[in-house]
Amino acid sequence: MDVRERLQALREQMRKRKIAAYIVPTEDFHGSEYVGDYFKTREYLSGFTGSAGTLLVMQERAFLWTDGRYFLQAQEQLSGSGIELMKSGEPEVPTLSEFLGKELKKGDVVGFDGRTVTGAFVKELAEKTAEKPVTFYGKRDLAGLIWEERPPMSAEPVWELAVSYAGFSREEKLAKVREEMTKERADALLVTALDETAWLLNLRGDDVKHTPVFLAYMFITGRRAILCAQTQAFSEQIKEDLKRAGITILPYESIEELVASLPAGQRLMADERKVSYRLLHAVSKGVERIDKPSPIALLKAVKTEREITHIRSAHVKDGVAVIKFIYWLKTHVSKEEITEISAAGKLEELRCEGEGYLGQSFEPIVAYGAHGAIVHYSATPETDAVLQPKGLCLADTGGHYSEGTTDITRTIALGEVTAREKRAYTLVLKGHLRLGAAKFIEGACGQNLDVLARQPLWEEGLDYNHGTGHGVGYLLSVHEGPQNFRWRMNDNVACVPLQEGMVISNEPGLYVAGQFGIRHENLVLVRKGEKTNYGQFMYLEPLTMVPFDKDAIEVSLLRPSEKKMLNDYHEKVYETLAPHFTGEELAWLGEATAAV
Amino acid sequence: MDVRERLQALREQMRKRKIAAYIVPTEDFHGSEYVGDYFKTREYLSGFTGSAGTLLVMQERAFLWTDGRYFLQAQEQLSGSGIELMKSGEPEVPTLSEFLGKELKKGDVVGFDGRTVTGAFVKELAEKTAEKPVTFYGKRDLAGLIWEERPPMSAEPVWELAVSYAGFSREEKLAKVREEMTKERADALLVTALDETAWLLNLRGDDVKHTPVFLAYMFITGRRAILCAQTQAFSEQIKEDLKRAGITILPYESIEELVASLPAGQRLMADERKVSYRLLHAVSKGVERIDKPSPIALLKAVKTEREITHIRSAHVKDGVAVIKFIYWLKTHVSKEEITEISAAGKLEELRCEGEGYLGQSFEPIVAYGAHGAIVHYSATPETDAVLQPKGLCLADTGGHYSEGTTDITRTIALGEVTAREKRAYTLVLKGHLRLGAAKFIEGACGQNLDVLARQPLWEEGLDYNHGTGHGVGYLLSVHEGPQNFRWRMNDNVACVPLQEGMVISNEPGLYVAGQFGIRHENLVLVRKGEKTNYGQFMYLEPLTMVPFDKDAIEVSLLRPSEKKMLNDYHEKVYETLAPHFTGEELAWLGEATAAV
After folding, report:
1. Where does residue A35 rank: exposed (0-12), middle (13-18), buried (19+ CB within 10 A)?
2. pLDDT at B517 over 70
3. How many angstroms separate the CA atoms of A100 and A110, rounded?
4. ipTM score
């Protein structure tokens, strides 16, 4: 079947059930950032392979919403399919829910696989169509009914992360979770995020690209802890260990029945912004739902002493690889053909030399020149640029190690850079340094501090259209909450104070379309500093250990205090990493970290 | 009757109604910052005259909660009353609701005048006593039943603020409010804050100290606008004008019936953090309540072009008075006896010379030496210190003019100041200047920017335990929302982006107990700046026009950029105010504003 035939088959299924509009999002059942092949329904039905997009199928027409990163690609891939491209974020392009609010008639039925959308998503749809109103049908995966030769659901072997890495046993973690449940007077907690289950059980897997997690749900009460997962992925040893920790394993699909079995009068913690519509729908009428984030998110974000020790060492290994990469790039760019893709390959090779390296923590971004201005650029054979010995190359990459997860961006001068590039590089660096050097009172949130990174840009009428930082998991998702550095407040999500032990990225940027892009990213660790009469103060310890490129710094733009911040950081980089280098590389590192 | 007899009379009323605990807060029926004599029930029953405190009467014991400002005063005033002092904020002192959660038994009845507490207050009480549970009785003002010779409710004449000051007619404002109601699909809006009603109707009054408002409620639907107020306070002319604008006047007490008359199925906007328990209780069962802030708060906060023009001129008048005051203080402190109270009197005299001056916008704070460290210090005859020709005097004062409301703090060197005082003065000034010079992107909130004022202090392990800034009304309350500068996020209150036309104070401080206090406060106006490819940028225009005291500045601590900010501001002060001075005062102003 081609895309047109697939859509016709879907429409027939829709007609049988009197569904006027069927929504196919990109998500799996857990809101994961990357999804396995089994879940690529939107790609199967539309032919569009981008990492973000939502398909809407109606009887006469079909539409695909995607964002600026994918306009060109979507245009090409949708051509001939009859699917119309909706350019999200463009003026006058309605959102999906606005569109449905306008197009639907009273009583129309809107369908979707209720496991692939959150409760909050459907709530918003209901609000936007409140005038009609319409009804929702989320019981069946219609695409599944017509998808021939659908890839099976991934069920890679699950493996254990030793307590010597994790810091707490699963029994200890479970006790902590139950303590938090008690504070909320919750009788049960529904865990759907894959990294939360992996963290809680000290287990890892390989069911999701770039994220060592496994497909599973958990349902926790005061007395029971039930893991709903693909039992074939677990060794007998792990099954036994789980049993000993009081954890029962049931089949993956049992979660719905479990949720439904909670008796009326009980209180269930389940966050409608995370939990699927279908699971929320399964909750019995009389159950009181506590609509708050899972307590595991915060517990997981605060790293243990053991984790922190390991993370520091992962960053040393990662720093060695990235410094070797930068040295190689700078010394080879004029001598051999290096492309964006081959450069990324070289860096991966160098990382593989690190002991305990397990793989990339996300799709690497190596973006040369104008490509650097495309924030989520990922080189394809069609776009793969040959690096020239001039201008800037932005490399945003990261790895998973047994000792933790890294994420680093360096913008590298491959030769001569223009005055404009230098100025931009330096303004972004000022923001990065100022945020990195922030001293703040306990209780402050990332939303309070973000301005420190942006101020040098805002003063010039410049800005970057992304957050300044995100939390980073321990051998889990490279993006985790609840902490972050950003200025926008989300009315629906409470701001979270920065706590000792949290790991966050500090990554301001500046993007000049068609010309160049700059981003400077270190991971930092939140730490307690001095306690005075005025309160407990906090500071940020840099974890990432790689110099910034002095070839691209306009030193005259740095304040004395900023020079000191840069020099102090470079001194620390040299002290920490010099023992891992010899010869020319060591000499280069010495120069690259010498005071400005 | 003395306090003991009053408490006994109250207890008898409690027994009749089987009330185990009766709560008497300080509030009037509108959550006003100051309350009229009629509402001073807590003072009548306890003898304690402070501006904040909550009395709890039980059959055997009675308790008064108040904060650090009033520990000494309360101790004295409560002595012999049998009322026990509960020092709010001290370790191990429970809050009122925590205390009740512990002390009460299942089924106990908690009483209060349901008009003096908000719905949110009672909700919190209910949560803290959820284990018992208890019931609430808010129908009767028991204190009113026993209060002999209670002062009448204030009903001062209401007067009109001309459209030439307000910028919009009441018809225009009403139309804007209804637009906002439509966005929320609200059938009715309940307005209880006095400044909101005064703003909406372009009327002012004199029923609350320091705030030119009148006792009233409003109930607004798509077709009706009903003012519930004391009709005797309105002239025939104003009554007619209101009628012509489609506004009906009903007696003050009718509000409860009006609220109750809203039929089931309708949607009522009423904020449980502002609206009294009793009014919320009057809402019919089937009415859907929209628990959001009144839209008037935001409309009122964004000043009109007319208002802004007037506000600038009010600040010129106020600046003249404050500059004359500082000059007088510095030149007379060594020559005659000046006390904190007499100095405040002198400043009031000077303000009275300004055309259109209507009175103080709050209780003036003139605090010398160690008194400056008491954030809410208000001199009494007992504490009134004689000013010496040395050290620092903190003066936080403000006025109402037909052209708007002012609020300014200057910390004045009366002679020699220590190196420590200078350093502290300068650190606070650095923060004040940095926040004042902030350039930021549209959409940013005060919570994003507060750190700019605190950073110079946080870097030294210092801080001040209050917000950096509050909104200021136009000839209304000197404290208004929803905008502010603060870093703490309140989970229950959404952060509000700073909009062009908002007026906010910028007032960082530093307090060294037993030694000195420093605060620097300007009012600033939010304005739109340049629009670039990266967004619309905003900046803050200083409204307050009074120099900072160079005698207390340690110039070597200022960065070049900070010196420029200070010099630019002082130049603007001189340019704007010099035309209003002659002779020695002019010469002094020239020196006081000369570049550092």
Report:
1. buried
2. yes
3. 9
4. 0.93
